[in-house]
């Protein structure tokens, strides 16, 4: 009797033999080719490896397939991450992956021996199907695979392999395994607490926000979170109210670190940015009466008026916490498209924040989208108190899987994962640290 799976197994074997043969031919172009090819052969021939690779093959190499509606905080993600840990454990036991030369920018149309090394790296992590071969030409298969890899690592999925992509690729497999193991523990701890049907989750290293309802992500927002020296804290709280067209009050740390130096350079700075100074009795203090060559200014309240210059722009989202942080809008939307979105002073800026607050306030009578937009357009100060506060969680998950075949990694921006190479901190130098004059022009918020 013929086994129904024989045809499938034969096809799988043929494809595997094909890639081994073509990989061997291409690898001959590279230094150390024999050693590298032996390692790749062992990896691809591993009996337990076949199903993992085939799962990747069947899902294709599109960056779009990296997206998921499964929340990071979910049993599905925890289970998928457990499976990813097992798969990466096998990969490490077989020697992991070889490094990719970093000196050359690789893109569609390029022919280079480095493309062969790139293909082998993409085979190993399942981003490129084995049937794509080992040609030194950067073809559409490699382009799609690089985009998939980039999407899994939080990089712009442009298909161009250069500095940032190579640095992510050249993190050794054993470090990626360790990163997954550390974050599996974080997920397990997070899931130990019961989750409400509706909640907001801010994932700091991913610079991303999920609005979750009934076990699915209903909104996902890009975020800007704290710099390495002004970190966004890990916390659990509940969103209690929303401020429309809020005042912005500068914390003492911002007054000391930013406002005083700016006023020393430009005495018109406060006036140009609609910031007023008040004493403890609520009396306004003229800027020229303060000695800006001292710390005297720290004793006063600095308040920025609602309007186009306001650091929080149109919305502030409040939740009790010991760190005096919050979420908010920003007038500087360009930062959301930056590669590294770690530019705030601890608070979290939210792209398309009005979509989020409409979802948050949807059960409050009289506060539909039209009403909220009218108040914002009028520049009128208004608060919305929530009758049912919504849980909010600031977490730190830098590696996870919402599907066993789609493993996500992010830069360990705050160096919490235990290996310096996972932080890649040289990529996160901020414009402010480099000497940018005006942090408020970027929508800096502070705490």
Description:
It contains 13 helices and 14 strands. It is an alpha+beta fold. Helix 1 runs antiparallel to helix 2 and helix 4 packs antiparallel against helix 8. The longest helix has 22 residues.
Distance N to C terminus: 72 Å
**What share of the residues does DSSP label as strand, in percent?**
15-25%
Q: How do the SSEs run, as a string of H and E?
A: HHHHHHHHEEEEEHHEEEEEEHHEEEH
Number of helices: 13
**Sequence stretches where pLDDT stays below 50 over 5 or more residues:** 1-40, 43-61, 333-339, 426-447
Largest sheet: 8 strands, mixed, barrel
What sort of overall outline do the alpha carbons produce when their principal axes are compared?
Answer: globular
Mean pLDDT: 81
Oligomer: single chain
Category from helices, strands and their pairing = alpha+beta
Strand tally, please?
14
Output the radius of gyration: 26 Å
Question: What structural keywords apply?
Answer:
disordered C terminus; alpha+beta; 18% strand; 447 residues; 13 helices
Please write out the topology:
Elements: H1 6-27, H2 33-45, H3 50-59, H4 75-93, H5 113-124, H6 140-152, H7 163-169, H8 173-191, E1 198-203, E2 208-213, E3 216-226, E4 235-244, E5 248-250, H9 252-265, H10 269-272, E6 275-278, E7 301-304, E8 315-318, E9 327-328, E10 342-344, E11 348-350, H11 353-360, H12 369-378, E12 382-395, E13 399-403, E14 406-409, H13 420-423
Parallel strand pairs: 1-12, 3-10, 9-11
Antiparallel strand pairs: 1-2, 2-3, 3-11, 4-8, 4-12, 5-7, 6-7, 8-9, 13-14
């Amino acid at each position: 009797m013929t086994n129904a799976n024989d045809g499938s197994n034969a096809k799988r074997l043929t494809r595997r033999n094909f890639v081994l043969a073509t990989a061997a031919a291409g690898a001959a172009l590279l230094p150390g080719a024999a050693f590298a090819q032996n390692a790749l052969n062992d990896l691809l021939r591993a009996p337990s490896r076949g199903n993992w690779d085939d799962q990747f093959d069947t899902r294709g190499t599109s960056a779009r397939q990296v997206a998921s509606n499964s929340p990071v905080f979910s049993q599905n993600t925890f289970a998928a991450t457990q499976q990813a840990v097992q798969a990466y454990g096998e990969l490490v036991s077989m020697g992991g992956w070889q490094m990719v030369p970093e000196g050359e920018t690789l893109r569609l149309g390029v022919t280079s021996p480095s493309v062969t090394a790139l293909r082998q790296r993409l085979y190993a992590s399942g981003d490129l199907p084995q049937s794509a071969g080992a040609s030194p030409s950067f073809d559409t298969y490699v382009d799609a695979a690089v985009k998939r890899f980039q999407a899994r690592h939080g990089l712009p999925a442009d298909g161009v392999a250069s500095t940032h992509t190579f640095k992510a690729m050249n993190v050794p497999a054993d470090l990626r395994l360790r990163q997954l193991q550390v974050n599996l523990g974080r997920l397990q701890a997070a899931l130990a607490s019961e989750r409400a049907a509706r909640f907001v989750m801010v994932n700091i290293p991913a610079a991303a926000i999920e609005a979750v309802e009934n076990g699915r992500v209903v909104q996902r927002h890009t975020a800007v979170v704290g710099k390495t020296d002004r970190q966004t804290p890990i916390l659990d709280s509940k969103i209690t109210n929303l401020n429309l067209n809020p005042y912005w009050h500068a914390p003492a740390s911002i007054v000391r670190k930013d406002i005083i130096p700016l006023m020393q350079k430009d005495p018109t700075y406060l006036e140009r940015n609609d910031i007023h100074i008040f004493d403890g009795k609520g009396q306004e203090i003229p800027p020229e009466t303060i000695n800006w060559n001292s710390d005297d200014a720290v004793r006063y309240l600095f308040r920025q008026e609602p309007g186009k210059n306001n650091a929080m722009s149109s919305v502030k989202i409040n939740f009790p916490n010991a760190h005096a942080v919050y979420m908010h809008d920003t007038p500087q939307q360009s930062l959301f498209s930056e590669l590294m979105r770690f530019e705030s002073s601890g608070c979290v800026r939210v792209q398309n924040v009005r979509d989020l607050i409409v979802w948050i306030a949807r059960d409050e009578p009289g506060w539909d989208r039209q009403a909220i937009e009218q108040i914002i357009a009028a520049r009128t100060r208004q608060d919305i108190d929530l009758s049912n506060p919504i849980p909010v969680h600031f977490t730190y998950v830098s590696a996870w899987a919402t599907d066993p075949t789609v493993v996500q990694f992010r830069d360990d921006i705050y160096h919490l994962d235990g290996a310096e190479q996972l932080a890649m901190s040289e990529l996160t130098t901020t414009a402010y640290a480099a000497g940018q004059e005006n942090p408020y022009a970027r929508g800096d918020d502070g705490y």
